[in-house]
Amino acid sequence: MTAEGIALILGAVATLVTSIATAVVLILKRDVTKVKDGLGEVHALVNQNRTDMLQYQNDLIMVLQKNEIIVPRDRSTVAGTGPLPKPDGRDTA
After folding, report:
1. Which residues does residue 85 pair with via DSSP β-bridges, in sequence order?
2. HEC states along the chain?
């Protein structure tokens, strides 16, 4: 086999490898796009549920405070480390 024949075979193999790699990348990119779309929907759902839960929790705290029931501070968040507001909206400090 001549040098030209070997060069042609190497060129053909390189083209084949490039084509296969391109196909794999396109397939993976399509799958990642589907996952990202799904994650966006889940993210919106979780955020809305959390917002609703925090509003409901705040409503419960206000009712308890209006009835002069001591409510412990929520220590699960940085924002929850301060004093609770009074039912009229003023700080306890």
Report:
1. 91
2. CCHHHHHHHHHHHHHHHHHHHHHHHHHHHHHHHHHHHHHHHHHHHHHHHHHHHHHHHHHHHHHHHHCCCCCCCCCCCCHHHCCCECCCCCECC
| Cβ-Cβ contacts under 8 Å for 87 (sequence gap 6 or more) | 62, 65, 66
d(CA 91, CA 82): 9
Amino acid at 23: A
Alpha-carbon span 68 to 70, nearest angstrom: 6
Cα 61 to Cα 54: distance, rounded to the nearest angstrom: 10
Interatomic CA distance for residues 45 and 79, integer angstroms: 23
- The pLDDT tens digits for 56-69 are 999 999 999 999 98
- pTM exceeding the 0.90 threshold for the entire prediction: no
